[in-house]
Specification:
The protein is of the alpha/beta class and 358 residues long. Strands 2-1-3-10-4-13 form a 6-stranded mixed beta sheet, sandwiched between helices. The chain has a 5-stranded mixed beta sheet with strand order 7-6-8-5-9, with helices on both faces.
């Protein structure tokens, strides 16, 4: 039973069809929400913009959200009077960059790592005729870790992401279909969509993004400021349940069970092996290829690590990268609440002490 007197026990949480939505799904399946006095309904959305707008509009109480989204809300919705904040980073890493099999076949890279594929792509672009349409790459949101990582990879290869290629935004679960149709030449997306494209023979994974920018904050628990102020105890209970789910996911022995749960029709609705790959740090670069070890593809928050703490310093680092896309408001660093995270740790410790004594 929860020791908190929550203001609002019945909650609706939003997530997208992604492997790192796992903390919400696992907390629901393991009964962790109920243990903290909450009755939670999970609602799957298709796009980040829709999820954002529903959260701001009050159609939901909280969401698993891209880490830069609360920090850049003024840039994407300049007339919005609400603020989004976070007291918990749910996960780091989890993304990859995938090229169409057709494009990859034209590159013939000397090595299949990020540098080798990047250099081959640069040579291919330089060799194109001046009147050839630029290659098109998709990301999931204007200010997303995916966009930052994709631009970083292109720039590292000497490719100007603003002039040498075309970038566009697509919902994560639509990436593979667009790649299959030839609408795009590549994408940067979260798992399991890179693995799905590779196993289907539609794409080749150029790089998992933890090889580019390790331990970058990926998903946060986001709520509106007005909701937090009206429901501080509920927010605490929610953070506590999700941090416990993240801790469970951090134990590698639990991830096989997690993959089976996530793969169910009501959640990701995919084959178990597609979901399990990145959870087990297995990188299938392309179809019929022996998987490589990719340690740390998903890093979930854990009370004994710093991955879950949403500090202003982490916010500043994200904003500095976002500023390379367009000018952003740096005053939003305080929307990453290290104090709320610390309160959650303290609450869980006290709760554990009370449970052990009883």
């Amino acid at each position: 039973m929860s020791s908190l007197q929550v203001e609002k026990p019945k909650l609706k949480l939003l997530y997208l069809r992604l492997t790192d939505s796992a903390p919400l799904i696992i907390a629901h399946e393991l009964g962790l929400f109920e243990q903290h006095g909450l009755q939670v309904t999970l609602k799957r959305e298709t796009s980040w913009a829709t999820l954002r707008d529903k959260l701001i509009g009050g159609a939901a109480d909280a969401a698993a959200m891209l880490a830069p989204m609360p920090l850049t809300l003024k840039q994407t919705l300049p007339n919005c009077e609400e603020e989004l904040l976070s007291g918990l980073i749910l996960s780091c890493n989890g993304n990859g960059i995938t090229l169409s099999s057709d494009l990859y076949g034209k590159l013939n890279p000397q090595s299949d790592d990020a540098d080798g594929v990047g250099k081959a792509l640069k040579q291919f672009i330089d060799g194109q005729a001046s009147d050839t349409a630029p290659l098109t790459f998709a990301s999931v949101y204007p200010f997303a870790s995916h966009t930052l990582q994709l631009r970083h990879w292109l720039s590292s290869a000497g490719i100007n992401p603003d002039t040498d290629v075309r970038l566009q935004v697509l919902p994560p679960e639509q990436m593979v279909d667009h790649l299959r149709r030839g609408d795009i030449d590549g994408f940067c997306v979260g798992e399991p969509w890179n693995t799905f494209a590779a196993l289907e023979g539609i794409g080749v994974i150029a790089t998992p993004n933890n090889a580019l920018m390790p331990a970058m904050p990926e998903k946060v628990l986001a709520v509106t400021r007005s909701w937090h102020e009206a429901n501080p105890a509920t927010h605490m209970a929610l953070r506590a349940a999700l941090l416990e789910a993240c801790g469970w996911l951090s134990d590698r022995t639990n991830r096989r069970d997690a993959a089976g749960i996530l793969a169910r029709p009501e959640y990701l609705n995919l084959a178990d092996d597609v979901v399990a790959a990145s959870l087990n740090d297995q990188l299938y670069r392309k179809q019929d290829m022996t998987p490589e070890q990719n340690t740390g593809w998903h890093l979930f928050a854990h009370p004994q690590t710093d991955h879950g703490r949403p500090s202003p310093q982490k916010a500043r680092e994200l904003l500095a990268l976002c500023n390379e896309i367009a000018p952003v408001d740096t005053d939003t660093v305080e929307l990453f609440h290290s104090d709320l995270y610390q309160q959650t740790l303290d609450y869980l410790r006290l709760r554990e002490m009370h449970t052990s004594k009883s």
